[in-house]
Specification:
The chain contains 11 helices and no strands. The chain is mostly helical and about 280 residues long.
Amino acid sequence: MRLQVSEQLVIWLVRLVTYSMVAVVGYILFDIVWKGAGVLSWTFLTTSPSVDGRGGIFPAIIGTFYLVTGTIAVALPLGMASAIYLTEYAKQGRLTGLIRLAIVTLAGVPSIVFGLFGLGLFVLFLNFGTSILAGSLTLACMILPTIIVSSEESLRAVPLALREASLALGATKWETIRKSVLPYAIPGMLTGSILGVGRAAGETAPILFTVAAFYLPNLPRSIFDQVLALPYHLYVLATQYPNPEQVRPTQYGTALVLLLLVLGLNVGAIVLRTHFRKRYRW
């Protein structure tokens, strides 16, 4: 009897915590959508910001797009290639275990640490300056562990029998990976990678030191230029203006656009995963 009562109490406690978290997140989302939807307009999305914090966010949208594109171009191939090597080629031993431990540890490092790392390596040592290149490389380093871990898990989920059957039929190691493993692992690999990119799109600390500008109404002309970015622009609007009520509508509009961007990346990950899972089943 006591065990049943204790079990029911635990169930209700877990349920209460879950519903409370959902309610808090739901309230935050509702508040952003309710107060930000009225700000969204074609003018707001296609004009440059003004000195007083008003105006549009077009340069911030373009800057975020450049950073996300650069991050994907660097992190996606490196992360997937590293996962394939660690899972399919590397000899499983103490050294490989230490490498995996280091990768998992890096996945939990705060983003501000990666920002300082990017400042020291890309901005100062390699002399890229505060630029799109430095910011994209810093964000790529930040999400690289997440991509490697998620890609490794997807590769391990593919049954070993598929590999053995392919090798038994005379296929090479690479042919086996390319034709018998990757088609089934790619949905999970892409999902984890895009979720990591979604995290990078909403980060402020790494770009604070490497690429973001306080006020920049013009679009960048090269990868060595600074840019405005949605998360940093939102941070500036929330903290750097003496009259916050004056820029409150712009804050909510910027937050809503950033939320929609991250949501779009997550929905894209789900769509890609569903598409590839329908094509390849075992």
